[in-house]
Amino acid sequence: MQRRRSLPVLTATIVLGLGLTTTLAACSGGDDRTPTRSPSATRSASATATATPSRTPVASAAPTSGTTPSPSASTPSDDQTGPADDGTGPGTGNGSGVDQPDSVDFAAVTAQGVAAAGGGTVVSLVGSGDNWTVLVSGPDGSQTQSVVSATLGRVTSGPFPKDADSATKAANVARAGALQVKADAAATSAVGAVPGSTLTSLVLGGSGSAPVWTATVSAGGATRSVTVDGVTGTATAA
């Protein structure tokens, strides 16, 4: 009688244990639905997000074609600008674009040389076309040289002092004191003595009592010498 009663009790216990185990397994598998991410998956996602370029446009520093340049880039600096060359200021060049003027006003050319030297007497005039070198003797016979533009009517180079020994200075003073025909009048007389000629040079010589201008003129490709009396203005072509 004792053995028949224990079998049903044991069977019921086993069945109850199996049911409890099944219930616990079902609860454990159903509640934890969040997948576990491995470290490698996390790194891969982070790298992908970092490597993705931003879609926000970035302004370029370089100007586009059609962009209006800045005034500072197109406007020359102060050292690149200046007043127009109207022939009224101190000169460093012709600037007129004329190398061979139709005529030369020797009175204006020599006057510019004398003004640049601060006064005196023209004792030499050499040049052609637009550029003329004017040599002026001062009251003490010292010499000053300038280059004058016949087109602009002003000094374009100089004035510069020109060496002269004591004998030359004394001769300049003596000739200037007796001179009656100035350089511009002597130049006009010299070219008038040879029709169709142009002046190349004019130099004051002679003595203190009889100054004489010696001129070189060019006509038809040939040069000729003309003397002009510094007192009377008489021109004689050689």
The tally of beta strands, per DSSP, is 8
Helical stretch count? Answer: 6
Q: What's the shape?
A: globular
Structural class: alpha+beta
How helical, in percent, are the residues? 25-40%
Chain-wise SSE layout:
Elements: H1 2-31, H2 39-51, H3 71-74, H4 106-117, E1 121-128, E2 131-137, E3 143-149, E4 154-162, H5 166-178, H6 183-193, E5 198-206, E6 211-219, E7 222-229, E8 235-237
Antiparallel strand pairs: 1-2, 1-5, 2-3, 3-4, 5-6, 6-7, 7-8
Helix pairs in contact: 4-6
Structural description of this entry:
This protein is an alpha+beta fold. Helices cover 35% and strands 25% of the residues. It has a domain of 132 residues. It has an eight-stranded antiparallel sheet. Helix 4 runs antiparallel to helix 6. The N and C termini lie far apart (180 Å).
Task: Briefly characterize the structure.
The chain has 238 residues and is of the alpha+beta class.
